[in-house]
Design a protein that fits this description.
43% helix; Rossmann fold; single chain; binds iron/sulfur cluster; alpha/beta; 15 helices; 12 strands; binds 1,3-dihydroxyacetonephosphate
Length: 310
């Protein structure tokens, strides 16, 4: 194995050689974040993917994110360091079961969280992310019933924020459901002046203990604009790498999983490594491929999201 410095230099050389852009989600390891050309939340990464002029997109995130980049860029090569980097939310919502569910509610407007497969996106009227979900739902006609999939925790939070009742698909993120309420309460006792900031994929009883709720980018921005000096962070700890750089003098506290497990780290996101990023830039494999008819169907609700949230 080449030492990290050598690996980083080779990655930089390959990026130029391939005219490649490396996009990374905040939940990637610090080493990957440090070689990325752009780091963002799901919405920002989709926007970046839609706008790039690179020939190759190396997507350091999970499969549905790279798939979204491919849907937006059919003529570009989209590679992902580890093809098995999936997502429990996407896995919890198989396309055929979703089709059967949807047919029970033929008059409903179907809004799907971007954390789903292209086959589910293709059955949706609109895609949203955690940063624009409330804003997009608020733009929909009040008299139109809404079906929301696949994250029931995000769906419940959006319902409360928008005062809309929605029919929810019962999906969940195993990472955001792993946080221990007991540990959170203990941390609040130990740091009474700390603000609790949470991602809306967390369970309702934890969100009730939060002072601020938002997507990963919104959480990051909040640590900068808030006057608080300490934050208890209820989301995947990969975000702490950027937070530490933005607010080096503030205290950032991660919340462990139940029984102190490290299941607050996303096992899918963490499959990507610097070595695998190097390999995928070198070999241009594994690529994301998709049937054109599916891509065209999945593109419509993504485009609609980008238009409505511009
Ligand atoms: P955001 O990128 O919208 O904050 O979502 C977090 C997440 O879980 C991505 O899988
Ligand atoms: Fe999926 Fe949860 Fe991992 Fe995000 S953190 S990729 S929602 S499993």
């Amino acid at each position: 194995m080449i030492a990290d410095n050598g690996l980083v230099a080779t990655i930089e050389r390959l990026k130029k050689q391939r005219n490649a852009v490396v996009l990374a989600h905040y939940y990637q390891s610090p080493k990957i974040q440090d070689v990325a050309d752009f780091i963002g939340d799901s919405l920002e990464l989709s926007r970046k993917a839609a706008a790039t002029t690179a020939d190759v997109i190396a997507f350091c995130g999970v499969h549905f994110m790279a798939e979204t980049a491919k849907i937006l860029n059919p003529n570009k090569t989209v590679v992902i360091p580890d093809f098995d980097a999936g997502c429990s939310l996407a896995d919890d919502c198989p396309a055929d079961a979703f089709a059967a569910f949807r047919h029970q509610y033929p008059d409903h407007f179907v809004v799907s969280y971007i954390n789903c497969t292209a086959a589910v996106k293709a059955q949706s009227d609109l895609i949203c992310t955690s940063s624009n979900a409330v804003d997009l739902i608020n733009q929909l006609p009040q008299d139109r019933p809404i079906l929301f999939a696949p994250d029931q925790n995000l769906g419940r939070w959006v319902q409360r924020q928008s005062n809309r009742t929605m029919t929810l698909w019962p999906g969940r993120c195993t990472v955001h459901e792993a946080f221990s309420e007991e540990a959170l309460l203990q941390l609040k006792l130990e740091h009474p002046r700390a603000e609790v900031i949470a991602h809306p994929e967390c369970q309702e009883h934890l969100l009730e203990l939060a002072d601020f709720i938002g997507s990963t980018s919104k959480l990051l921005n909040h640590t900068e604009i808030s006057s608080s000096e300490a934050f208890i962070v209820l989301t995947e700890p990969g975000i702490l790498h950027q937070m530490q750089q933005r607010v080096p003098n503030k205290t950032l506290i991660e919340v462990p999983g139940v029984d102190g497990c490290s299941c607050n780290s996303c096992p899918y996101m963490r499959l990507n490594t610097l070595e695998k990023l190097h390999r995928c830039l070198d070999t241009l494999k594994p690529t994301i491929e998709m049937e054109e008819s599916l891509r065209q169907k999945a593109l419509l609700p993504i485009r609609k999201m980008l238009e409505m949230s511009s």
